[in-house]
Amino acid sequence: MTDNRKGPTLSDVARMAGVSIATASKALNGREHVRESTRQRVFQVAEALSFVPNPLAQGLLSGQTGTVGLLTSDLEGRFSIPIMMGAEDAFGAGSTSVFLCDARGDAIRERTQIQALLSRHVDGLIIVGARPDPRPPLAMRIPVPVVYAYAPSEDPNDYSITSDNVHGGRLAAEHLVATGRRRIGIITGDPGYGAAHDRASGAIAALNDAGISPLGDAAQFGAWSEAWGRGATHAMVAAHPDLDALICGSDQIARGAMDSLRELGREIPDDVAVVGHDNWEVLAPGARPPLTSIDMRLQELGRLAAGKLFAAIEGTASHGLDKLPCRLVPRGSTIRSS
């Protein structure tokens, strides 16, 4: 007889199925070394009893708690939230919970948050940086698998996955060349960011492949802001009045560039085409005209990071750095109306 006040337990399922508690747990959790006939019998009993597994009990039996920690330094959630959504998709609804913590770019706070996550007995950690540049590995010894997403670890023994910024710059340039543009300028962000250089180098390489040099023979570096985009565009048009396209290192820069082009009487995209980077939904689709942009596929990055973490939790760890190719999202800022 089961205790109806408490509901059926794993012990009840095991007893009625004629197996041990450990075997019942393995069957319900999809583990190996359980005969299919036994697995089916356990499932049938569990269904008949309306048994709902207790997460804590599952953790004690399997050595896993069904939780992972996601630690970010991205205060706005602009990059970390899509990555977390992708990770949750990969882990599966209800099967794994994700605890999100914000380190705010502070090493001491990062250590405190990690200790808090480990105190919850998480099965693994995904570390999301605020900027897509290499970062030091976690300073403390971590007893669970760790995957670095968006910002790779400097330690090649760790596993990291990030967006391929060189590829993103190349996509932008190839798209503009394919639409017939030849007088192309490059305005990108903070020169202290490796991503700014990577996006510019990818664009310049693609232009060179097409026999084209960027206006001024180099990218213009500044800030990740609309103000920089406006000022740099005014200067670019003054120096190169025959400009017919701009590659911008971020959507914010691109929005500023588009403001300046309108002020200067240039039609977008008929006179000048503009490509941004990030495909930020807050900016790109609502721009006038809607902004063609490079999508870093952050949700897919989160899914892949979660897959690697899950494999490591199961005993198959990866090492090194993977770069996820970007994709171009064409919109009205580069496509002439027919």
Automatic annotation (TrEMBL):
<dbReference type="Pfam" id="PF13377">
    <property type="entry name" value="Peripla_BP_3"/>
</dbReference>
<dbReference type="GO" id="GO:0003700">
    <property type="term" value="F:DNA-binding transcription factor activity"/>
</dbReference>
<feature type="domain" description="HTH lacI-type">
    <location>
        <begin position="8"/>
        <end position="62"/>
    </location>
</feature>
<dbReference type="Pfam" id="PF00356">
    <property type="entry name" value="LacI"/>
</dbReference>
<dbReference type="InterPro" id="IPR046335">
    <property type="entry name" value="LacI/GalR-like_sensor"/>
</dbReference>
<dbReference type="InterPro" id="IPR010982">
    <property type="entry name" value="Lambda_DNA-bd_dom_sf"/>
</dbReference>
<keyword id="KW-0804">Transcription</keyword>
<dbReference type="InterPro" id="IPR000843">
    <property type="entry name" value="HTH_LacI"/>
</dbReference>
<dbReference type="InterPro" id="IPR028082">
    <property type="entry name" value="Peripla_BP_I"/>
</dbReference>
<keyword id="KW-0238">DNA-binding</keyword>
<protein>
    <submittedName>
        <fullName>LacI family transcriptional regulator</fullName>
    </submittedName>
</protein>
<dbReference type="GO" id="GO:0000976">
    <property type="term" value="F:transcription cis-regulatory region binding"/>
</dbReference>
<keyword id="KW-0805">Transcription regulation</keyword>
